[in-house]
């Protein structure tokens, strides 16, 4: 029997006009969603910063995405603390 977590899915996605091969254990639907969100974010940032080349745009997209991730982690920690207080 094959361990499901070891199965690698391979797909090609398009992000900001370029094709990329993605390999991972997540579903292809999940990987396509990730690529779509990155593509949308790059296009959104490009609208506000049209002079950026694609590599600077990619870095700015990564910085914004990590910022959002850190804010979400902070919110989760706050909610977990509130939940502990309610249970306690």
From TrEMBL:
Coiled coil: none annotated. It is found in: Cytoplasm. The gene is zapA. This is Cell division protein ZapA. It comes from the Bacteria. GO terms for cellular component: cell division site; cell septum; cytosol. SUPFAM superfamilies: Cell division protein ZapA-like. It comes from Ureibacillus endophyticus. Gene3D superfamilies: 6.10.250.790. Activator of cell division through the inhibition of FtsZ GTPase activity, therefore promoting FtsZ assembly into bundles of protofilaments necessary for the formation of the division Z ring. It is recruited early at mid-cell but it is not essential for cell division. One of its GO terms (biological process) is septin ring assembly. Homodimer. Interacts with FtsZ. Keywords: Cell cycle, Cell division, Cytoplasm, Septation.
């Amino acid at each position: 029997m094959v361990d499901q977590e070891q199965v690698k899915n391979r797909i090609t996605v398009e992000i900001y006009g370029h094709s990329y091969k993605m390999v991972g254990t997540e579903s292809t639907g999940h990987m396509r969603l990730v690529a779509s969100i990155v593509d949308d974010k790059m296009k959104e940032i490009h609208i506000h910063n049209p002079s950026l080349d694609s590599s600077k745009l990619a870095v700015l997209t990564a910085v914004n995405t990590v910022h959002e991730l850190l804010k979400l982690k902070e919110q989760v920690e706050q909610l977990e603390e509130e939940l502990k207080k309610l249970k306690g």
